Automatic annotation (TrEMBL):
Protein name as annotated: Arginine--tRNA ligase
Known EC number: 6.1.1.19
Keywords: Aminoacyl-tRNA synthetase, ATP-binding, Cytoplasm, Ligase, Nucleotide-binding, Protein biosynthesis
Subunit structure: Monomer.
Gene Ontology MF annotations: arginine-tRNA ligase activity
Lineage: Bacteria, Bacillati, Actinomycetota, Actinomycetes, Pseudonocardiales
Main subcellular localisation: cytoplasm
Locations listed in the record: Cytoplasm
Family according to the record: Belongs to the class-I aminoacyl-tRNA synthetase family.
PANTHER family xref list: ARGININE--TRNA LIGASE, CYTOPLASMIC (PTHR11956:SF5), ARGINYL-TRNA SYNTHETASE (PTHR11956)
Xref: CDD domains: Anticodon_Ia_Arg (cd07956), ArgRS_core (cd00671)
Chain ranges of the Arginyl tRNA synthetase N-terminal domain: 8-91
Organism expressing this protein natively: Amycolatopsis melonis
Top-level division of the source organism's lineage: Bacteria
Amino acid sequence: MQTADVTEELARRVVAAAGRALDVELTPEQALIQASPREGVDYQGNLAMSLGKRLGRPPREVAALIAGALELGDIAGAPEIAGPGFLNFVLRKEWLEARIAGLLGDPRLGVPETPRPRRIALDYSSPNVAKEMHAGHLRTTVIGDALARLLRFAGHEVLPHNHLGDWGTPFGMLIEHLADVPAGQRAIADLDAFYRAARQKFDSDEAFATRARERVVLLQSGDEETLAVWRELVAESTRHFNAVYDLLGVSLTDKDIYGESFYNPYLAAVVEDLEKAGLTEVSDGAVCVFPEGFRNRDGDRLPLIVRKRDGGYGYAATDLATVRYWTAERGATDLLYVVGAPQAQHFAMLFAVCRAAGWLTGHAEHIAFGTVLGADGKTMRTRAGETVKLADLLTEAVDQAAAVVAERSELDSAGQAEVARAVGIGAVKYADLSGDRERDYVFAWDRMLAKEGNTSVYLQYAHARTQSLLRKAGGQPGGTQILLDAPAERALALKLLRFGEALKAATDGYAPHKLCTYLYETAVTFSRFFEECPVLKAASPELRASRLRLTTLTARTLALGLSLLGIEAPERL
Ligand code: ARG
């Protein structure tokens, strides 16, 4: 399937023309082609300004030479040269019509698969055992899931791994606390309450604290009885996490769990390798690596602690083993970590050490995200001042969505309950995905469930409207003829052709919000089309069929786009 990407198509031709006219070699990106914000212009090329500077020639003259050498075939007429040297393109109607018609039979809507598939290890969700998932885990789970979908759709192989915090000193007290409950009655109703109770016993009961410390040693030495209780604890926690994943419609399963404990067998070799490479130093009894370029405010070098003074291994050591495992043993070409922004330095140091050790030669990136804030602008808390549990938050989302849907639904109550889930969960996810991920965002029900504006509810309504229109028309028509005479039809067609570009920007930049923005613009463009262009009562049968085809393509674009964000598009709301 040929790409539907107009930007790319124009860029290729502009680059070729610049080569012929000016003897310069440019990449397609350097053609600086973009959709034009100007009325009556579809695309513009902005390369003449920088090229003029580089060649020491007036930009308008450069633009004219490129225009003269351009071979656009039937795509567009000769570009107009505007302002300081913009090349303004107006696409030919017939070409546009043929392009849109070409999308009708294409399940990928003109989006090509990458010619260079990569094998991407993607760390996301990664909650901690014996603790409830909170709003921060919502972000990593939702963003990670969207990235997994986007990357797979682009043709990459994605290896998800859920880096559960399932190891370390607190497990002594947690296991001991669970072991105090008779076997067979160890279901944990509330993970946070369980954790608090263990901590309280540890702080107040000296004998318990001693037993807890001994448990850590037993756990680390692989004592079978201890491991059995530990496994129960992990299983109880995983049950809670899976309930959240289910509610969210996130595909993580038990086979994606690669908790901290998984890397235990590799830790000794990690230290050994680093020592052999001459990278370690002993500082305060701990084995450390001081990667170059990392210093604190006082100018002291910062250590990545590989082995603690007591011989134990911590978070950093495990992450070193993680990198080594996914590159060396699993052949990952890319390592992505969807983790909150506060861990930026940890990952920067980790990558630096792994590169120095030779474990990391490909791409590694910390996909950072900001904090979820409450209405008061502070980290979101319950009224009682506790962190908000993700499960409670999602249940409330569905309840709130049910009220919104009930306001104007054509469905019976069972149908409404079903879409409430799609709408509520979609709203939470979309609110998280639609902003630049590195920024904090304020969690506000009324805003995320608004029927107007850049929300998933708005997109879901737009999609449902397309479905209702197609139902009234008795289904989508066969044939492929597309007619684009009205300005609103043309605008919609231009938007539909930009789906691939939006996906590419969202995927390459790990920036789902770019897809959100595109989908929103598409829905707005469709609604203008819907207002200005009668569909069922179009002036001719051909026009009616063409408009129904545009409606079908809009529906498919919205549904596919939403699905790549992990959001459902119900047929009716
Ligand atoms: N469990 C950690 C937390 O909840 C996140 C782990 C992220 N992944 C990693 N490989 N360090 O903060």
